[in-house]
Design goal:
This protein is mainly alpha-helical. It has a domain at 68-169: Tetratricopeptide repeat domain (Serine Threonine Protein Phosphatase 5, Tetratricopeptide repeat), CATH 1.25.40. The chain contains 14 helices and no strands. The longest helix is centred in the middle third of the chain and has 13 residues, at 83-95. The chain is elongated and about 60 Å long.
Amino acid sequence: MFNNIGVYGASRVKKTIPATMAMAIGFGLAMVILGQPMSAQAAISSLSSAGLTDLESHAETNQALGQPRDSNQLAMVETKNHAAETVNHMRTLAAQGDAEAQYTLGALYNRGVAGVEKDMIEAVYWYRRAAEQGHSIAQFNMGVLYATGTGVARDFGAAMQWWRMAAVQGHAEAQFNIGLLYAEGTGVKQDAAEAVKWWNMAAKQGHAAARFNLGLMYMKGDGVDENQDEAVRLWRLSAKQGFTQAAGVLKVLHLSE
């Protein structure tokens, strides 16, 4: 379900893979979302609710992937001695149409920090304002809010639209989530080839979970020609990033380096 990071399709893994491997992979559909900080591997290894990913943690991940950091202004607000004055300055910039300031206000309302009371209606308003100006992180966040029904009515179609906007700008997590929707047929017609396409985009940017899921598709020949060597290559890349399920699969198959 859409309350944790997850992996796709273990129940459909090829019979040539031992049953213990399928158990290690797990089965589920989920996504990267905003909220409490936790490592990707910890969230992925559990199918219980992972909560919301911390904004700074999300920003650091995107920086590693070549995406713009989203925490610069937020960090500035939180560390200023006169937070109220700084927040007011952000409001002025946001009202003037500054997309980064609008995003920052959305983040402040989403988290309820720097003297700003948590208010998801306001968070959605400012995220939307920034997203409409092409702010990729705000677009990604809008997709998450719609997919989880946080501050807005749950709407996977709207989530897909926002994620597409972010994905075409190179947002790897948005690409990953689009792949998940296509893989499971949630809000869209199930399409393994589309899942492969979007996971491949994210995998090329170094997204560990996308690499793992793409490896599954190559191993099964689902949406792409079967290629077990490519599956193992992707799992090794994912494992080197600390993705525990990829490491577990390689260990079960006695392929650990």
